[in-house]
Amino acid sequence: MEFEHLFPIWDKLTVSEQKLLNQYALRRTAVKGTLLHSGSDDCLGLFIIHTGQLRAFILSQEGKEVTIYRLFEGDICLFSASCTMQSIQFDISIEAEKDTELWIIPPDVYKKLMDSSIAVANYTNQIMASRFSEVMWLIEQIMWKSFDKRLAGFLLEESVLEESELLKITHERIAAHMGTAREVVTRMLRYFQSEGMVVLSRGTVQIKNRKKLQMLSEQ
């Protein structure tokens, strides 16, 4: 898939704007675990995902992580180019959760497009609104939903993403996604196991009773 097929508003750009993107957009690969962006001082440009999966997360002063959203094929990551927008100063980190191919639009190029194209400016605002909604949803989950329900929902989401009932994920990794301590995750997973919802082994969590997890997550 070529770059123009991934950029949603390609047909709304002028010929000169299309030529600018074709000239400067960079194709890059990132192996699983690669940290692509780290904080507001790290401004690589706009990410457009070709294949793979990225994770955007925030990091507390104590080193605790919490995932705020994920990016899949065709998704666009705006905060990796936050330096192009003076009103946005988010210390968000982005890593490859799977081997990923992506296009990068350099920040100065994207800034030029936003200044010259109403279509690009409007699309940027749409992305910002969408990401803001995702962050607000996460805040609501953390503030108002108990951890057992959040964990049940997370396991079900992972199962859908991986298309498997057997999740190859550590307790530490789950804790990083959910913004809590590994010990908290371990205790809750052991409770889930005692209730027949999962089976635990080293480095894996196997879902055994999907219906029960679903009922718990929806309470």
Write the layout of secondary structure elements.
Layout: H1 3-6, H2 15-24, E1 26-30, E2 35-38, E3 46-51, E4 54-59, E5 65-71, E6 76-77, E7 92-96, E8 100-105, H3 107-116, H4 118-144, H5 147-162, E9 166-167, H6 171-178, H7 182-194, E10 198-201, E11 204-207, H8 210-218
Antiparallel strand pairs: 1-8, 2-7, 3-6, 3-8, 4-5, 4-7, 9-11, 10-11
Describe this structure in words.
With 219 residues, this protein is an alpha+beta fold. It has two domains: 3-143, Jelly Rolls, CATH 2.60.120; 145-218, Winged helix-like DNA-binding domain superfamily/Winged helix DNA-binding domain (Arc Repressor Mutant, subunit A, Orthogonal Bundle), CATH 1.10.10.10. The chain has helices spanning 3-6, 15-24, 107-116, 118-144, 147-162, 171-178, 182-194, 210-218, and strands at residues 26-30, 35-38, 46-51, 54-59, 65-71, 76-77, 92-96, 100-105, 166-167, 198-201, 204-207. The strands form three sheets. Strands 1-8-3-6 form a four-stranded antiparallel beta sheet. Strands 2-7-4-5 form a four-stranded antiparallel beta sheet. A three-stranded antiparallel beta sheet has the order 9-11-10. Helix 3 packs across helix 4, helix 5 (147-162) crosses helix 8 (210-218) and helix 6 packs across helix 7 (182-194). The longest helix is centred in the middle third of the chain and has 27 residues, at 118-144. The protein is elongated and about 60 Å long.
Query: How many angstroms does the end-to-end distance come to?
Result: 42 Å
Named at the architecture level, the CATH assignment of the largest domain is Sandwich
Mean pLDDT across all amino acids: 89
Helix content: 40-55%
Low-confidence stretches: none
**Largest sheet: number of strands, sense, barrel closure:** 4 strands, antiparallel
Q: Which CATH top level class of the largest domain fits?
A: Mainly Beta
CATH topology title of the largest domain = Jelly Rolls
Rg, Cα atoms, Å: 19 Å
CATH homologous superfamily grouping of the largest domain: Jelly Rolls
Strand sequence of the main sheet, in spatial order?
A: 1-8-3-6
- Rough shape? elongated
Q: H/E series, N to C?
A: HHEEEEEEEEHHHEHHEEH
Count of discrete alpha- or pi-helical segments spanning 4 or more residues: 8
